[in-house]
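Sharing a chain and its predicted structure for anyone who wants a worked example. Both blocks are below, sequence first, tokens second.
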Amino acid sequence: MGNEPHQSPVLAKLFNGRIHLGHALQFLLFLIGFTLGFIASLHLQSFPINLEAFSSSPSPPPPPPPPAPVENSRLSMEDAELFEKASQVPTIPESPHKPIPKVAFLFLTKGPLPLAPLWEKFFRGHEELYSIYVHPDPLYNRSVPETSVFHGKTVPSERVEWGKPSMIDAERRLLANALLDISNERFILLSDTCIPLFNFTTVYSYLINSSQAFVASYDDPRKIGRGRYNTRMGPTISISQWRKGSQWFELNRRIAFELVSDQKYYPIFRDFCHPPCYTDEHYIPTVVNILCPEQNSNRSVTWVDWSHNGPHPGRFGKEAVSGEFLDHIRFASECSYNGGNSSICFLFARKFLPNTLHALMQLPAF
């Protein structure tokens, strides 16, 4: 014990003081670290970490919504595609079980059909014997009641200008849509001012049993005929082939097919027949005369009053409607039908104003 080194009281106090100071510094550092860690944890809670952002294989995007159902695929086809598709349909059904032949009624209108109730009465009870196609102005979007025979019968349309190639575009568009139904064998073009002159049975029998189509096509030497011929149409179309006639045609399936598939004559009319040349008065009469004159009766079955001079036919209001007036249109003429004579030459008439509807509905013809 006597050999241990001696420590003075001053050094002992200094040594003990350093020990207490070290503990204080350690406690202070611990307190500062704890405080900083607590603050940092609160700060990080306001910025949550998105683990998906660091994933090596991100989740795929949600699948697109299913496409809306299409009521009829041909309604979205452009004209060129529509005409091509119609041109691929046989002109005569090849199946040994031929469908019941139908008459396609093609309505070229500006908008509404003011005489629709008369047509409703005409069509009633013959649903399997006819088809209806309506080409209105594209801006006309009024709905048709579901109970109407015209409901759902509108084809995709474009604007039509009187006397312009757009008139032929609309007529070919109607024909193409109708050709897609192989059971349609006859095709009649009508306007919103047309009326039937006989009941459906008479009209159907007359058209289905006809051996020829009904297109007015004649050589008119006057200025309003040959005078509209453009020499730039030659040599494809000659002056001797040039014809004039009414646009209100009735066609068989063969001629309708020729007009829809035509890529030879239509471009010539489109480029060189402009007012005072009117395509609706010359295109179909001329093409039918060139391609199949033997299949044409060279007359129209739609009566029009051209007794007054002017570019448009006469119009009829309610005061003109009577049984005697309609009988005069029905039976006052004589024409050729299937090689014989017939007193029935016209099946339809125009132009009848909307105010004629009530009077027409009272007549017993239908």
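Comments welcome. The first strand starts at residue 102 and ends at 108.
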